[in-house]
Amino acid sequence: xxxxxxxxxxxxxxxxxxxxxxxxxxxxxxxxxxxxxxxxxxxxxxxxxxxxxxxxxxxxxxxxxxxxxxxxxxxxxxxxxxxxxxxxxxxxxxxxxxxxxxxxxxxxxxxxxxxxxxxxxxxxxxxxxxxxxxxxxxxxxxxxxxxxxxxxxxxxxxxxxxxxxxxxxxxxxxxxxxxxxxxxxxxxxxxxxxxxxxxxxxxxxx
Length: 206
Fold this sequence. Notes:
The protein is α/β, with parallel strands linked by helices.
């Protein structure tokens, strides 16, 4: 079973993953890039790590439980937000998008998606405390907008978690929903509606 945690920066995804890890989920950690100053370099670094992470997903999901923070598809979400906030050129965004599309052969699909969200001010405060000091209002507005669009177009078991709720409430919500899905695998044609993700699965099936 693979649970994918997705959402903007500053939405306590690591805390949610740690909750699942205590419940027996394997949690492979992704290292933050050394510099946040160049948006392309940052997303390229994350994409490389998430691509390697797919090997862990493939080897574990059918015989155990694994949770990951974000996926290769989140690269496109961040790149589009960076373009909107004038932090990345259209050309570099297209380059990253094409890289993600080229990875359809290794892309696994999650059994459940957990969408972590928080009000903008709370998310910026959390991100700043974590050390992501370059986060600004324009980028956060763009990122929240892109994630809202992204999750609206996902057809899969999904939990929306407001990370401003008490820790114990989040833990109970996750525990209950994990028990309800068990090890059920989702039919290939019903996971994603979003065009840029749909291309992965259509190419993979053909």
